[in-house]
Design goal:
Bound molecules: flavin mononucleotide
CATH architecture of the largest domain: 3-Layer(aba) Sandwich
Number of domains: 2
Structural class: alpha+beta
Order of helices and strands: HHEHEHEHEEEEH
Distance between the termini: 38 Å
CATH class of the largest domain: Alpha Beta
Strand content: 15-25%
Helix content: 25-40%
Shape: globular
Number of strands: 7
């Protein structure tokens, strides 16, 4: 059921690092990104799949993990991602505003993460990185801009959804058992009634 899959498709930041992701699986996930809708059907996104250990090690320190958990430095060695999908904007294909590409990016990465969750693989979108350093590390041509990095792997943590408390605090937290809790606004809080009598 899609509703169940959407509920289960949570951000995971601790992984079974030694458990490799098969190239065919990663290819299938990028394929799901490829099939997503795009503004003007521009298909301005491209992808780089990284599984090589040396490159993963070089990439990891560039990433900002869980900004709401300042005491947590990110996944420890052994719990780091088994793969990354780097999402790139091909500026030479871009005809409209870059904001359109960011909409495409949301669709593409959600397709990818839903497909991954169906296979028991989870991930974390990471937008917190220094673009210039990332560009250099990946030896990208000038036409490409790194928009997002999706970290992937088999999970080594559990994540539960919570209702937002009365204080309205949206920050996720870790409990003493290491379970990750993610508050979500209620349906009532996000729905607006259309004005009548237009
Ligand atoms: C565009 C985007 C950028 C994100 N960037 C980061 C990031 O840099 N570091 C991180 O740890 N999580 C990042 N996240 C993950 C969010 O923190 C996560 O989606 C949020 O806490 C809600 O959890 P959920 O995905 O399980 O609903 C990002 C998510 C999105 C959609």
């Amino acid at each position: 059921m899609i509703a169940d899959l959407v509920r289960r498709t949570r951000t995971v930041r601790r992984f079974q690092e030694e458990r490799a992701l098969e190239p065919a699986l990663l290819r299938d996930l990028v394929e799901l990104s490829r099939l997503g809708g795009s503004a003007r059907n521009g298909q301005v996104l491209k992808y780089m799949v990284i599984t090589d250990q040396a490159l993963r090690q070089a990439l990891f320190p560039l990433l900002g993990w869980a900004g709401y958990l300042p005491d947590w430095p990110g996944p420890a060695a052994g719990e780091r991602p088994a793969a990354y999908v780097v999402c790139l904007l091909d500026k030479e294909l871009l005809k409209g505003a870059e904001s359109e590409a960011h909409c495409d990016l949301g669709i593409a990465t959600q397709n990818l993460l839903l497909g991954a969750a169906e296979q028991g693989v989870f991930g974390c979108r990471i937008g917190a990185f220094a673009p210039a350093v990332m560009h250099r590390l990946l030896q990208l041509e000038e036409r490409f801009k790194v928009l997002l990095v999706v970290a992937l792997g088999y999970p080594a943590e559990s994540v539960v959804l919570e209702e937002l408390g009365p204080d309205g605090d949206i920050r996720y937290w870790h409990d003493a058992q290491g379970v990750h809790h993610v508050p979500k606004r209620s349906f009532e809080d996000i729905i607006l009634e259309p004005s009548v009598g237009l």
